[in-house]
From TrEMBL:
Keywords: ATP-binding, Kinase, Nucleotide-binding, Transferase
Entry-linked InterPro entries: Kinase-like_dom_sf (IPR011009), Prot_kinase_dom (IPR000719), Protein_kinase_ATP_BS (IPR017441)
Pfam family, one: Pkinase
Residue spans of biased composition, Low complexity class: 25-40, 281-295
Keyword field contains ATP-binding: yes
Region (Disordered): 1-47, 281-302
Biological source species: Sorangium cellulosum (Polyangium cellulosum)
Record-linked CDD domains: STKc_PknB_like (cd14014)
Domain Protein kinase, chain residue ranges per copy: 89-324
Protein name as annotated: Protein kinase domain-containing protein
Residue positions binding ATP: 118
Amino acid sequence: MSAEDHRSEPPPGVTVEPQPSPGVTADAAPSAGATAGADSLSGGGSTASSPSLAFLRQIARVPEVVPAAPIDADESGAFLAAGEDPPRFALRRRLGSGGFGTVYEAFDRKRGALVALKVLRRPDGRAIALFKQEFRALAGIVHPRLVRLYELHRDDARWFFTMELVSGTDVLTHARGEGGPDEARLRAAFREIAEGLAFLHDAGKLHRDIKPSNVMVDAAGAVKVLDFGLVADLNAPTAPVRAGTPRYMAPEQAAGLAVGPAADMYAVGVMLHQALTGRLPAQGGTAPAPGPAARDAPEDLDRLCRELLAHDPAARPTAREVAA
């Protein structure tokens, strides 16, 4: 089994470190929420809409959230039979599956730790290129609020990469609980979301699919932003496309116009509205109406929510401003 290093030179200010062991140790009990959370208050899946991106719409997504499931003997044996002897990765359970690939919880014998392992389902030329693109987007970017990618591998015809295994729950479940918003948790979580996005934007990357199921909170209350299948390079001259999850798209994103960091912050505003009210913002024309978030919401959070949902991208606060 060979590991291929596809990391490019990082942008200024981006830290590249030796690959450490992930925070979940080998003797940790598997968590039902590992690497995925139930997006219970959201609507619909991600899309990428353009004739040139029909293929991307079909496969360029991290697997949809499904209940974690055990792997059967055939699945485990077929994957582990090839490559090293003994195999480096022992699959524990399947965490999610979609058109693009399957994510497993696996034990990495070399690291001595549990990791998340994403396997490309159909390794044709175009799918491999997109798979590499997803890995390269974050492989050299290291921040406590962004899920850490480790290694890209090719084993015969199979392609897969490993990443940090995140156990926890989605940010809305964490911030709201069963009795409505927990203000202390909400403030801490959204500040950490902004910290991660500020670092990502400073590194010249745009997430484009911020939504509750892509923001996990671990048992210690720490936020991790996941799923970089739709990440875009802010400095690359690419044609505007309609990509993301419809109810979290900024107006300019939904219209298929060029987008910048403000589009990610609009999605943060949608999540903040959900955290404060328990519901998505009301649709108003092509975008949710930025009215009061909740009658009893703290004034500063209500104001922040309305600013983040501004129709004009220039009027939205930056991630760095929200994190301050």
